Every structure is written in structure tokens, then in C-alpha cells.
Amino acid sequence: MLKLKKTQELFVKGNVMNISNQALKRKILSSSIIGNALEYYDFTLCGIFISILAREFFYATDATTSILWGFFAFSAAFWTRPLGAFVFGYIGDKFGRKVALTWSIVLMGIPTFIISVLPSYESIGMLAPIILILCRMSQGLCTGGECNGVAIFTLEHLKTKPGFVGGIIAGSSGIGALLAMFMGFLMTQDFMPSWAWRISFAFGAIASIVGYIIRKNTVETLDFINVKNKAASAPLVTVWRDNKQSFLLSIALGLYMGVLAYTLLVFLNIYLSQYIGLTLSQSIFYNIFGYTAYMLFCPIFGGFSDKISPVQALKFSGRLSLFAPFLVFSLLQINSGFSIIMGQILFGVIAASSYGPIHYFLQTLFPTTNRYTGISIGFTIGLSLTAATTPPLLTYLLNTYSNLYIPAIYLSFCGALWLTVLGYLYPKIKTHYKMHKVGDTTDPAIAKAT
Predict the structure, then answer these.
(1) Taking the model in full, what pTM does it have?
(2) Which fold has domain 19-220+232-434+442-446?
């Protein structure tokens, strides 16, 4: 503890050696990866066990209605995610990135534990779905502070190769999701008891305690320390007044990301199990390949953005989304093990092409004084809208029109819309912010728009 306080004191004095020390850099990066992975493990579990939770906690007369109720509970987390971004964004800009991230992860464990011991609908009736939805809302509140906050924290510490580092942070959420998928695959095996899914949630609650300890033993960023006395009393008002186009663009990026991420994470499991004829366990198993590809390719596409600029990398992603989804769903419909794996991997690459560069891109849109608020609220508003609606919307459209290429058409449309918005808004942003150098106590340097 004394060593940590001494390190923080040296940070305040602008001691360059400490932040440039490779051991400290590794500690910051590893703590960010582990903390982010653990929080996303908790958040992802409901998506993995969505059909089981629907059956346990909701009353329904048929499988489709049950799944839609499950989507309703899953989407509850996105109702409060923008509120969480507002709360933790204010804390992050006013009191520090470390404070916001530490509390977001410890509070995530409480609703996760409650779900692990929550009685079923048969036992307590309507209280079961009400408590489940409240727990999901609490999880969404915490994730609103985590999603972008951990990238802001890490990139303000580590100045070199921001695209690659941001891609690692983006991919680290995949570690948590993969762990959740593995638990889902294991707990849905025939030899496991019907209540085995509860073990996954109990494990998540314990993991949150580990995450809290890790976050508690990190240090605040020098960027925040240098400007903490300049933080606005109402950061969101400042964002809207000074960075309106950046804020709107972050919303649009969130909309696009939500479609890709939750098609991969949630809908593909439903698509394979409900429309292709696989079991839930098989669907989860194949989805692991898609999320592994996502996790591995995020740093690659992040590094790609270091070479060509983050905006050019995101344009490439939009173009890829115009045609590649049709190949993905063609492969899934062949319904062989090899074709499904290839389809999952390809979709993981599509998702990584967008998620790899986003943290570097968003970091350049806002100054240090309102960066946490601007990025978190804007991106989360967009993400919440499409993440909550994409899986149920695609399920409804498939049930109504019976066209197995509807998801590909929808994804292609979203890619075209993203390219249009990016092309319109980005040239209007006259100020792009560089992450200022170690020891620099001035405001972030302003760079010419790329």
C-alpha cells in the first residue's frame, strides 16, 4: 500500500520514469484486461443462458414466446446502461477513472449473485421475473461505466500504439464472453443437473471480488491528474456545447457496434438452435469459434488503425459489412460442422474489424476533461438501442417472413447506414484530440482531422 501511494505521489509530480516503466505498463494493461474480462463474464451469462432463464422465470405457452420473454429480460440491462454511463462518466471525469472502474466492477457482482440463488417462477410467481429484470437493470448500470471507461483508463496510461492497445482492450471482453460460453457449454451437458447454470452465476459473483481487488491496486492516470481541477461541474452539458458532432458520431458508432456484437453474442445461438436445428449446447459450442476469432482479430484490426488511421479502419469495417454477412449465413445454412465454424469465424472477423479500432477512434473525439462522459454516454446510448432490439427484431422477422437471409440483409443495411453517417459527420468535426505525452501538464494537443 505504501508503495502504491508513493507511485501515485510520483505521478502527481510528473515523474516520467514511473509511467514509462515497462513493469508498470504491463501491470496496468493486465489489470485492465482481467477486470474487463471478469465484468463481461457476468454481463454475458444472461445472453448465454437466455433460453433457460426464460423457462425458469417466465410463464409461456410455447417456445417462441418463451424466447421473446428471455430477450425482454436480457434487454433490460440496456435500459439502464446509458444511465450507468452518465453516472460513472461523471464520476470518471470528476473524481477519477480508477474510482469509476473500481465501483463498477464490485457492484456488478451483487445482481449476479442474486440471479444465482433466485427461485423460479413456479416457486414465487411474478416476483421471479421482476427480480430478474431488476438484476439485469443493475448489471446494465454497472456495464455503462465499464465498457469505454477501461479503454480510456488504459490509453491514457499507455501512449504508444493506441490502436493496438485499444484492440487488446476490445478483445479482452471476448475473454469474459468466452469463459461464459464455456460455462454455458459445460453446464448444459446432459450429465449436469438442471440447476447447474446457477453455478456459472455464483462463480461470476466471486470473480467480481477478484476484479475489485485488482482495480483497487492500480493508479490513476496522469492525464486526469493534470486536468482534474478543470473538470466541468456538468460534463454532459459541456460535451453537447463543445463536442456535439463528436457526441452524435459516438452514438452512431454505438448503434453500429450493437448490431454486430449482439448478433454474434446472442442471436447466432438462437439462429442455430431455432432455425438450423442444432441443440443449444451445440450452438454455444460453435459460437465459441466466432468469439475466439473476434478476440484474436481485435488487436490485429486495432494495429491496422495505427497504420492507416482509425477512421479509415472503420470505413473498411463498414464496407466489409455490406457483403460478408451474406457469406456468413450461407455457410451457417449448409449445416455441416466445418461450414458453421467457418461462418462463425468470418462473423467474428467482421465484428473485430469494427471493435478493434473504436477505442482509439473515440479517444480522439473528446478532450480529457469530458472524455469519460462524452464517450461513455454517446456510445452507450447507441449500443443499448441496437443491442436490446437486434436479437428480438431478427427473431420476429424470421418467424414472420421465413427468409433465412433476413439477418444478412439487416446487417448489410446497418453497414451502409454507418458509412453514410460517418461520411457526413466526421468532416464536420474540426477538432481531434491527441493523447498528450507523458509529463505534459497542458491540455491535450489538437491534431488536424485525419
Answers:
(1) 0.82
(2) Growth Hormone; Chain: A; (1.20.1250)
